[in-house]
Amino acid sequence: MDMLHGAIGGKLLRFSLPIAFTGVAEQLFNSADVLILGQFVGKDAMAAVGNDIPAISLMVLLLLGLSMGVNVVMAQHIGGRHEKRAEEAAHTAILVAIFMGLLLMLAGEALTTVTLDILEVPAEVYEDAAVYWRIFLVALPFLALYNFEAAIFRSSGDSRTPLYSLIAASLLNAVLDVAAVHLGLGLSGVVWATVIAYVVNALILWVLLTQGRAKIRLAAAKLRLSAVELLRIVRVGLPAGAQGMVFALSNILIQAAINGLGPDAMAASTAALTIEFNVYCFMNAFGQAVTTFVGINYGAGNMERCFAVARSAFKVGGSFMAALSLAAALFAEPLLRFFSDDPAVIALGVVRVHYVTGLEFINGFLDILTGMMRGYGFSLPPAVVTLIGVCGIRIAWLHTYFPAHPDFVGLMLNYPVSWAVTAALLGIVYWYYRREVLTPRRERARQRPV
User: Fold this and answer.
1) Which burial class, exposed, middle or buried, applies to 182 when counting CB atoms under 10 A from its CB (0-12, 13-18, 19+)?
2) 243 φ, ψ to 5°?
3) In this predicted model, what pLDDT tens digit does every residue of 356-407 receive, in sequence order?
């Protein structure tokens, strides 16, 4: 896709949708696990997975953030036509992915007991939660590799290939999940099926990249670290990962509060969270698309088009995200019945979908603002604002409003309030950077001799 010329709105939508469906397919790994366990094993097994999800998200979001650093760095190199530097960044990225995946896997295994204790996992689901956690960690190196490989494709303007790979792996996961249940392997069989699917997914993209299916061709013999490119990737990716981890950390605190409301609340939150994550894939996709579009045009020195990308993102992306949130809220109950037929679980799940997923478009605006800042290379400011806005507000909420209103609704209101305040703060920060930093750069670019 040519991101440097032509109308932006249609291209932004076409580039975003494969990313969104990639996220949906990725969520199908966990969705399939939750659905199979809820329908064929029991709600305790489903609740066990739900208890692990916030901690798993903590590590996955760190990896996703670092892969965003790869996306930005390579997009700027490609936009500036620095092919050699883009190739060095790509090979550096693969080594970083493998190292970080293995590091997180080993750290997670060593801290299993500590993690489950922090999550305050109830005794009745503790063993199942420990089994799911320990086995899932084996998938982390391959999950890391896939996300970094996908970033290489997207920085080249190809958001479809990672989708096709993930669809194939998701289908494999679903088939293996069903087979595991029928063979009587239970929870452990289901999670091992997920690990196998992640391995296949990462290998598919590796083969395609070594065959030259992207603008940058990988080769095992060229895998080496470039200190310069590593520093650039970390400078953008680490704050992006920290920003995602802030969300995950605050969700861990909220999960502990949910656990205190009983097994029905845990199971309901797990089912609703699955719907919520799938909807969020579309919100996050526009943020990632904006990052790539801005990064390429910024690398090419076209500031006017960078600003035009921002306007199109709010217009096209905003309308799409609001419609999707409304649709999820309207069809909350039938969607939840895919995961459970327990009336109490469904009733509480509807509450979460209405108060969280139904207002999730606010989080989408937050992602668009963050995506624009990252595309320019400013990754730290959004991370700091998110730490103050999301984490600060949610911690304060759990110690002030929730004790006074200790019910499921009082807990769920935490999400839209923290999103709205953080989006407003980040809007102010972006306005400052555009006026004080980006506009002067645009004026300097105009004064350069042709």
Assistant:
1) exposed
2) -60, -45
3) 888 988 888 888 898 888 888 888 888 888 888 888 888 888 888 888 888 8
